[in-house]
Design goal:
It catalyses: S-adenosyl-L-homocysteine(out) + S-adenosyl-L-methionine(in) = S-adenosyl-L-homocysteine(in) + S-adenosyl-L-methionine(out). This protein is mostly helical. The chain has helices spanning 2-25, 27-37, 55-81, 89-120, 126-142, 146-175, 181-198, 200-211, 223-239, 243-268.
Length: 269
């Protein structure tokens, strides 16, 4: 009852804090990725200059975003686990992760829009970009790319979380006892890196949609149209722009984040 509830909220706070740290440590990789994916190309978007442009937006959005995801994930999981057969476990994890993303994106998308726009115009402040976006596009400007973010996150979660859980199960079975938190972290890094690579084209489409000039075709938020445009103009290399920094960031992120997740769960539950 009460104690369990307290433990869960403590876990969520620690996790969300881990999420913030991961986002801030790996921010330069994210900036490089955004600039590689931007329509104007890496050099014109700022190259290696102002590598922390847009960081205030991430700093503010990161904690509530991670908390929203895990609160939804844990709650949905416990509701669905109630009375469902064990072979349905991967499916319940998938549903829980997907719903977690839909909720978390309500917070993530506005902070991501501002962050990405700041990353490709490092001379403007985050505040200026925020007011410019609100003035010219209103609240819906902040939610530009909501659909494409959810469309990127859900396949990502559907690959990452079940893969993470099965790698842990496999390793536990191989060694005859449950994995340690460092092993869980290694599984998290693998699962994250693989999921990141496979979903890169969706990530590029999302970047193009968020950075598109108001009124341009990409600004409408159509993911398939954006993917088609990138494929026609830049081919496969365009669709996988920024795949290396994306994989690196998410592998490291998965290592730190999912390792922390496992450790706090072992300590408290």
């Amino acid at each position: 009852g009460k104690q369990n509830c307290f433990c869960l909220s403590l876990i969520l706070s620690l996790l969300s804090l881990a999420g913030v740290c991961v986002d801030l440590i790996l921010f330069p990789l994210d900036t490089v990725k955004t600039r590689l994916q931007s329509p104007q190309g890496f050099r014109k978007a700022g190259g290696f200059r102002g590598i922390y442009a847009g960081v205030p937006s991430t700093a503010i959005g990161s904690f509530p975003n991670a908390a929203a995801f895990f609160i939804t994930y844990e709650n949905v999981k416990s509701v669905l686990h109630h009375g469902s057969a064990s072979y349905l476990t991967p499916a319940t994890h998938m549903v829980a992760a997907s719903l977690g993303e839909v909720v978390a994106c309500l917070i993530r998308v506005p902070s991501e829009v501002i962050k990405q726009r700041a990353q490709v115009s490092p001379s403007s402040s985050t505040l200026r970009i925020l007011s410019h976006t609100l003035y010219h596009e209103g609240i819906q400007g902040l939610y530009r790319g909501y659909k494409s973010t959810v469309l990127r996150e859900i396949p990502f979660s559907l690959v990452q979380f079940p893969l993470w859980e099965s790698l842990k199960d496999l390793w536990s079975w191989k060694q005859g006892h449950v994995v340690d938190s460092w092993q869980s972290a290694v599984c998290g890094a693998f699962a994250g890196g693989f999921a990141a690579a496979v979903t890169t084209p969706l990530d590029v489409a999302k970047t193009r949609i968020m950075l598109a000039k108001a009124g341009s075709s990409n600004a409408s938020g159509n993911v398939l149209a954006a993917l088609g445009g990138i494929w026609r103009t830049q081919g496969l290399s365009g669709l996988f722009a920024g795949v290396v920094p994306r994989m690196a960031a998410i592998s490291l992120g998965g290592f730190i984040f999912l390792g922390t997740y496992e450790k706090t769960r072992q300590l408290l539950l």
